[in-house]
Design a protein that fits this description.
Elements: E1 2-7, H1 12-18, E2 24-29, H2 31-34, H3 40-45, H4 49-55, E3 64-70, H5 79-85, E4 90-97, H6 105-124, E5 129-134, H7 135-142, H8 150-169, E6 175-176, E7 187-193, E8 199-201, E9 210-217, H9 227-236, E10 243-250, E11 257-264
Parallel strand pairs: 1-2, 1-3, 3-4, 4-5, 5-7, 9-10
Antiparallel strand pairs: 6-10, 7-8, 7-11, 9-11
Helix pairs in contact: 1-8
């Protein structure tokens, strides 16, 4: 059983999307449990230890945990206290990057603090990994989305890709060239390959050190003699900029699934586009 801990209203749709999978157990923390305060500092100083421990009591030291949070929220201030409770588990952070241009000044300050702090904690080795997801890039990939379903559609696509990649992580590949990542390489994102081989990443990760192409291949496609040659050609085309690997898994599906994961050991910084002051 894989545990998913979501914090704040910004990730509620993601948590609900995980509920469709029987392999995941979800825990949701919001103001009802954490309180309603006006700053990150207040959330940290008034942290309800007993209530949160009771909520997360099913998570043990041997558990795998995905900690899901969207930047900018005041209740992000409770994160370090929550992660302290989870310290004996194996924790990966799924960090959702909001559109900073629509955040308040306080929200932008909150987001800057958490964005850097989570990366520093992960690089120190206290947490397994951080996966960065930029909602604007996910939206750009999906195209026009009806307003009434906007949040649910974004959440469904993020979760479905994570779930498939996590399934691959717990499945023996048919063939792989993947090697163990260097210890400090813990900052990551993921994305998709379209039928023409174009890459769509859900975060613009800078200074990529490692890239893995993950192929979910149908039983029919497994019989194609050209498949492995096509995959090798794709990986070789990117080896000049990063260490590149591929992994192939058989899946029970009508179509092949093609995903990408990229990794780095370099903390990500803000760019001019998303740090333009709000007007």
């Amino acid at each position: 059983m894989y545990n998913v801990v979501g914090v704040g209203k910004g990730v509620k749709n993601l948590i609900e999307s995980f509920d469709q999978y029987k392999e995941y157990k979800t825990f949701y923390l919001d103001e009802e449990i954490l309180g309603n305060f006006s700053s990150m500092v207040d959330y940290e100083n008034n942290f309800p230890v007993t209530a949160v421990k009771k909520k997360l009591k099913g998570i043990t030291k041997n558990s795998e945990v995905l900690y899901v949070i969207e930047g900018g929220q005041n209740l992000s201030g409770a994160s370090l206290r929550i992660l302290e409770i989870l310290k004996k588990a194996s924790v990966t952070i799924l960090y959702v990057v909001p559109d900073r241009n629509i955040l308040s000044d306080q929200g932008r300050e909150n987001e800057s603090l958490t964005f850097r702090a989570f990366q520093d904690i992960v690089r120190s080795g206290d947490l397994d990994q951080i996966i960065l997801i930029d909602l604007e890039r996910v939206e750009a990939f999906l195209g026009d989305i009806p307003l009434e379903n906007y949040d649910k559609v974004l959440a469904y696509n993020i979760v479905s890709i994570f779930a498939m990649l996590n399934y691959f992580d717990h499945t023996e590949p048919i063939k792989t060239t993947k090697k163990s990542l260097p210890v400090a390489v813990r900052i990551s994102t993921f994305g998709l390959l379209d039928p023409e081989g174009k890459e769509f990443m859900f975060y613009d990760l800078e200074k990529v050190k490692d890239k893995e192409y993950c192929y979910g291949v149908t039983e029919k496609e497994m019989k194609k003699s050209s498949l492995l040659r096509e995959i090798r050609k794709k990986t070789k085309s990117t080896t000049q900029s990063a260490r590149c690997y591929y992994s192939i898994y058989q899946i029970d599906s009508e179509e092949n699934q093609k995903y990408i994961r990229t990794y780095t050991d370099i903390c990500q910084t803000r760019n001019k586009k998303i740090d333009t002051p709000a007007t």
